[in-house]
Write a structure and sequence with these properties.
The chain contains 3 helices and 6 strands, in the order E-E-H-H-E-E-E-E-H. By secondary structure, the chain is of the alpha+beta class.
């Protein structure tokens, strides 16, 4: 758990695994995306169907579109997954 202001940020293993493999510059860009969803959790788009309640925020990292999946409540952000679009939703449904 990483407390930021009054918001608690938690990371699921799938997110941690991907984040750990990123280069320093990419980690900085992901950190900015995380700050954006902490500030405004509705910034991502809410999914429907099997993924109802999951939000996905899209951002550019190393000239490539990345997706950050998360769930939120007023006091907490749960980071679920991080990656490029290929197989992202399939893998997210497995977790």
């Amino acid at each position: 758990m990483i407390p930021m202001t009054d918001i608690i940020v938690k990371q699921m293993p799938a997110f941690k695994k991907t984040y750990k493999k990123l280069h320093t510059q990419a980690k900085a860009e992901v950190d900015e995306a995380i700050k954006a969803i902490i500030k405004d959790p509705k910034k991502g788009k809410e999914k429907k169907g099997d993924l109802a309640g999951v939000f996905v925020y899209k951002f550019t990292c190393n000239r490539q579109e990345f997706l950050l999946a998360y769930e939120w409540s007023p006091e907490e952000r749960m980071l679920l997954a991080l990656g490029v679009h290929e197989n992202f939703y399939r893998d997210l449904k497995r977790n």
